[in-house]
Design goal:
Length: 179
């Protein structure tokens, strides 16, 4: 390969590019990606166990009480949900590292960097790592690795379903207070 210096081709050359193709039959399997994809759904289930009626009743009957206003933050289900999400986000860093190491051990040259999982803390969830991993695996092996992406889409759909149930619970508790 020769280099263009802006005016002409130079005499400097470089050897042929190194092939980043994985050997035929390289395994794309890793248990760590499934933990990254599926377990973040668990903390949302805690929101289903909050007694919204009791919380809203205390806020309405004691509007000037800070204890009533902030009671949601001391609710065990809410705390379990928040702490569980934080712990799982921190664990996803370890799982992404182990996933990248497993892929490298399986023969995938230069797998997608595990460090992209840090976008989880920027609000992107694990999507940046997940999509990047899928694209790199497709380029390195020629095979599709879309299973984790489809599972992640399913977890988003289930998460929306749980969110709808929580909204219905809150609206039902609010309607009970109005009547």
């Amino acid at each position: 390969m020769r280099w263009w210096d802006g005016v002409q081709w130079t005499d400097a050359t470089q050897g042929a590019a190194v092939s980043l193709r994985a050997p035929e039959g390289t395994s794309l399997a890793s248990p760590w990606i499934w933990l990254i994809v599926l377990l973040p759904l668990l903390p949302t289930f805690g929101l289903l166990f909050i007694d919204w009626q009791d919380y809203l009743q205390s806020v309405v009957t004691q509007p000037n009480s800070l204890t009533a206003q902030f009671a949601i933050y001391t609710n065990p289900a809410y705390l379990a949900s928040v702490v569980g999400a934080l712990v799982l986000n921190l664990l996803s860093i370890l799982w992404a590292y182990l996933d990248a190491k497993r892929l490298a051990a399986n023969g995938v040259p230069k797998p997608f960097s595990w460090a992209y999982i840090f976008f989880t803390f920027a609000g992107a969830g694990s999507w940046v790592y997940l999509i990047g991993r899928t694209v790199v695996l497709r380029r390195r092996t020629g095979r599709s690795a879309m299973g984790p992406i489809w599972a992640a889409i399913a977890t988003v759909v289930v998460g929306f379903g749980i969110g709808i149930v929580v909204v219905v619970q809150v609206l039902g508790a609010t309607a009970a207070l109005v009547n």
